[in-house]
Amino acid sequence: MGEAPAFLVEDLKSNLSNGFHLKSKGCETAVDIGCNRMYVIGDPKSESLAVRVFDKSTNEWVFPIVLGTKPKASRGHSAVVLDQDRVLVIRGDTSSDDGFWFLEVNTVFVTEQKARLGTEVVAWSKGVIGEPEKPIVISGPSGVGKGTLIAKLMEEFPSMFGFSVSHTTRAPRNNEQNGVHYHFSERGAMEKDIDGGKFLEFAAVHGNLYGTSVEAVDVVAEKGKRCILDIDVQGARSVRASSLEAIFIFICPPSFEELEKRLRARGTEVEEQIQKRLRNAKAELEQGTSPGLFDHILVNDDLENCYDKLKVLLGLTNTVKTTPKSELVHVPVEHTGLKIGEKIMMKCGAVEQERFVLDLGSIRGGAPGRTRGLRIDAVEEPCDSELGFLG
Ligand SMILES: Nc1nc2c(ncn2[C@@H]2O[C@H](COP(=O)(O)OP(=O)(O)O)[C@@H](O)[C@H]2O)c(=O)[nH]1
Ligand SMILES: Nc1ncnc2c1ncn2[C@@H]1O[C@H](COP(=O)(O)OP(=O)(O)O)[C@@H](O)[C@H]1O
Q: Where is the Guanylate kinase-like domain (predicted)?
């Protein structure tokens, strides 16, 4: 265990003794997490952050299935073993909002995927500085007005919210656009992606498959927006059980008769589908209003009234809240990170060091999804001499 500093190929000759061959341009970092496992991150020929595993017990290379949104190619990187579960990978020549990535090698998610897929698996999770606002999960029976409420929210606060575009095997409605309302998919392709660990959650609803891909949520987070998920009760339960911390809101109709009226008035479903949706609505209403799953239940009687209540519980009344962007720190190609407790002491640049401390003390989440709660602190001078590292 310990830290492996960033190194470029010229410096790597000494690492040949580790049993791997390094030549031409590129950057590789080898980290030993114990258990006879050496993880090699990077590629000698390119700037990609590929991952392979050297099994010291068999002297063989293993090429794992890599899950999660992968970091972009990187001009140099360093890797710090955090524990037997995770490696922190710091990309060079980046700013801090895309610089810190967690390679999960033994977390609960990865262990489950290894058992399921019967092979070596690793997963990437991007480290997010600060406390982003929680995604919002909105559920409720078909025709209750989820889409209408979400559309109003997105229209009034376009820079604040982003919609998680689900995948579905159902056919598009006349007014629906692929990639905007849903990613309309073939069942086989979607099942393959689910097996490949690309989905945060999925469920069979009204006879079709629906699911939220990790990427759908990431795309919204990438834009710095708060993610809204319109998913069914089963999906909400899966998200509750996942690493994604969210606010869960269930929308109820004022009556069953009114629900049927709205569903029919929308005119998007054939009679058979309307019947199926109404049958399912009974169970959804029962589950949605039972204690424990949803944080808030809103009755969508009068639309404006319900929308106002939604805004109140999201803290959107009076002022438009903007999340302060944490100050970005530049991580140069040349840098090193040293783990001390739950902090990573960062030393950047060759001579005049830019220094900062990355605090992992309150990180949460992880693959599938983001690792949140990273903090960047300025270095306090006494640390230098005490640690004998930065000076
Ligand atoms: N679990 C899950 N449910 C979804 C997802 N996307 C949509 N749904 C739910 O699937 C159900 C049917 O959606 P849709 O066919 O668009 O019909 P609508 O509810 O009548 O608008 C609704 O309850 C949605 O909330 C998803 O990604 N995951
Ligand atoms: N509070 C409301 N009162 C009356 N009609 C409503 C209300 N909210 C939504 N609607 C209408 O009900 C229909 C179903 O709403 P929609 O947003 O598509 O539901 P969902 O997304 O939950 O399936 C739409 O035609 C919509 O205009």
A: 133-315
Q: Tokens in use for 75?
A: 């001009």
Asked if 314 and 157 count as a contact pair (C-beta separation under 8 A), the reply is no
Same domain, 234 and 284: yes
One domain, residues 299 and 154 = yes
Task: Provide the pLDDT for residue 225.
Answer: 84
Q: How far apart are CA 348 and CA 356, in angstroms?
A: 9
- Pocket probe mutation, ligand 2, options 138, 148, 182, 278, max atoms within 8 Å of Cβ: 148
Q: Indicate if 291 and 332 belong to the same structural domain.
A: no
pLDDT band at 222 (very low <50, low <70, confident <90, very high): confident
| 145-204 pLDDT tens trace | 999 999 999 999 888 899 999 999 999 999 999 999 999 999 999 999 999 999 999 999
Entry pTM = 0.71
Q: Rounded to an integer, what distance in angstroms lies between the CA atom of residue 289 and that of residue 33?
A: 46
Nearest CA to ligand 2 atom 10: 145
What integer pLDDT is reported at residue 18 of this predicted model?
A: 31
Task: Please state, in angstroms and rounded to a whole number, the distance separating the CA atoms of residues 17 and 35.
Answer: 19
CA neighbor of 149 nearest in space, from 250, 225, 280: 250
Note whether 183 and 270 are same-domain residues.
yes
Are 124 and 143 found together in one domain?
no
Place of tokens 């995604």: 135
H, E, C per residue of 16-35: HHHCCCCCCCCEEEEEEEEC
Total domains, the chain: 2
283, part of any domain: yes
| Cβ proximity of 29 and 4 under 8 Å | yes
Sign of CA dihedral 59, 63, 64, 66: positive
pLDDT tens profile 37-84: 899 999 888 889 999 999 999 999 999 999 988 999 988 899 999 999
Give the integer Cα–Cα distance in Å for 275 and 233.
19
Whole-number Å distance, alpha carbon 306 to ligand 2 midpoint, is: 12
ipTM entry: 0.98
Active site residue 37: no
Domain co-membership, 302 together with 195:
yes
